Amino acid sequence: MPVVYIYFLCLALGYTPPGYPLQHPSLVERYYQHRHQSLFWFAAGTNSISLRRHLLSCIDSAAWQGLDSNKYRPAGLRLLDNSSFMSPDSIRLASYDRLYTDAAFTYGSDLLRGEGIDSIFSYDGVTPTRTAYDDQLLLNGFSTVNSPETFLQWTTALQPSTPDYAILRTALRQYLDSAALQNTLLQNPLLQNTPAPTHAESRIRQLCTSLNVIRHIHHYQFSRFILVNIPSATLSYYNADTLALSMKIVAGQTSKRTPRFAAFCTRLILYPYWNIPRKISVKEMLPLFKKEPGLAALMNIQALDSRGKKVDITQISWASYTAASFPYTLRQAPGCDNALGVLKFDISSPYDVYMHDTNLKGAFSSSWRYLSHGCIRLERPLDLGMRLLNNQLDTTFLRSCFRDQSPIPVPLEKPVPVFVVYLTAGVDPAGRLAWYKDIYHLLR
Questions:
Q1: What is the pLDDT of residue 83?
Q2: Which of 64, 102, 147, 370 is the 20 to 30 Å CA partner of 267?
Q3: How far apart are CA 439 and CA 220, in angstroms?
Q4: Largest Cα–Cα distance in the chain?
């Protein structure tokens, strides 16, 4: 007997097979504790039938939301919906009810938090801080549902109300309508050679990714946050859900990619050192200084021994070392000629990546801004610094370019979330749908 029929048979007998567990068992259990174990989807009366039909309708149209309807097991739910002829007992009905509730929570969770987020970020230091809050939000909201109308109100409230989100949803529907029309035409034997819409499937996938990431970021309802999009090479700073500042960035080279992550900006460093990573020191700096030893002093490079003590840079015999034997740690002293400029934004990620000013301002006038070793160079770092420090940043002090100034760490009153994402579908400043190049060739 095929597995799918075994599954449906098990459902009809009133239990979930081991291969098909509830996706949100804790939420489901808490919900029924709140209801004193009473039925919801299979309660007596016609209202429960309307609720089941409405949930199935939402699942069937999940693609319009950028979601995969199969995740919510519509075939199994329909089997239960049509199983009244079996006259199930109270135990079976309780099991059926929980499967519907689990589907509703899964659907609602994806509308709230976004679907497939685990594959979006290489590191996520934000979600663990909010999981319990999100679960309670879902539970509280669903507990108010008692009709198809209130179910719609619940699912609508879970989603962002921003203009960008609405534009992307409209675009997705248009592409899906176009694809559906094309499939209908191709079923006509006279039109078998009709070409499919150019890149339609790719565009749909790009829009789905963007919608889910936007859901995820906005659902936190942070009072402020930073969004960096690598393909568009831009940074956006938001107060709540309102864009307050945007700027160009320089991101990592295609061979030295900027990682995708969610973390917190914890502090600013005024007049930072550039602590040069070992890999850059021995692969780039050492060969350069072997050819031109005087460049080290000209670039204001400092060398530290194994005890962290500064050594005389002019006395180093660069040519006598190899990458393996080079004993020093290199850093560039603070100042306007520092590679990090005069302002660095520390981020609590596991990567040696941060946002910073730069001494190479000309790169921002180029359309190709993928030039760094992975860090994020900012076009307007002082403007961002002023926002994060609530207008308490001394920009005159920073613009003075003091060469011998020691670094000054300035902790933020409250860490600010930073989301570094890879979205090739977006909305430009004029409110128009925009497509960005797959710079790192991550799209399949």
A1: 59
A2: 370
A3: 28
A4: 92
Task: Return the amino acid letter for 385.
Answer: G
Alpha-carbon distance of 154 to 140, in angstroms, equals: 10
More confident residue, 51 or 88: 51
| pTM confidence score | 0.88
Nearest-angstrom CA–CA distance, 264 and 141: 28
Q: What is the rounded CA–CA span in Å between residue 357 and residue 376? A: 9
pLDDT of residue 92: 83
Q: Of all helices (H) and strands (E), which one includes residue 368?
A: none
| 212, 419 contact by CB (below 8 A) | no
**Which two structure tokens, joined as six digits, stand for 248?**
């160009």
- State which amino acid sits at residue 363: A
- Least confident window among 3-17, 103-117, 247-261, 279-293: 3-17
Identity of the residue numbered 205: R
- Cβ count near 370 (within 10 Å): 22
Percentage with pLDDT > 90 across the chain = 80
> 271-305 in b/e burial notation, b at 16+ Cβ within 10 A?
bbbbebeeeebbeebbeebeeeeeebeebbbbbee
CB neighbour burial string for 54-78, b if at least 16 within 10 angstroms, e if fewer:
bbbebbeebbebbbebebbbbebbe
**What is residue 234's three-state secondary structure?**
strand
What is the tens place of the pLDDT at every residue in 72-96? 999 989 988 775 545 567 788 899 9
Dist CA 77 CA 103 (whole Å): 9
Measured over the CA atoms of residue 361, residue 367, residue 370 and residue 376, the dihedral's sign is: positive
- The CA-CA-CA angle for residues 313, 314, 317, to 5°, reads 90
Of 61, 421, 433, the C-alpha closest to 226 is 421
